[in-house]
# Entry
Amino acid sequence: MGITACENASPPPQSEQVLAWEPVGTWSGEANVQTESFTSTTGTFKFTWEAHDTSSEPGHLDIMLHSAVSGRPLVQAVDHMGSGKGSIYVNEDPREFYVVVAAERTRWTLKVDEGISLILTPTKH
# Structure
């Protein structure tokens, strides 16, 4: 008995992986802050920050990602003098985290988003 193949078979649909951003939290202030803990399933983050000096001397903003399991600092996401803003991407192993913001002479805002993968598969019409 022989094996036959169907020549009219269509190829399997192609899937596309897309990175989307899911909000973790937004914080702001003029003082030092430790955020509440949050669990990450991917360990991929986007930190978006802004700092405005509150005196004639340049301010300082330091943002550190910590492990909520051990408490140890993992990544210094921001170390900035003076007014400014920016975004930084951080990759760590998935786990529970918190963020520590240390601020001197600055009014700051911080938004943290987690990167999640979405698999898109085309549908047949």
Q: What stands out?
A: The CA atoms of residues 17 and 119 lie 5 Å apart. The chain is about 0% helix and 60% strand. The two ends are 36 Å apart (CA to CA).
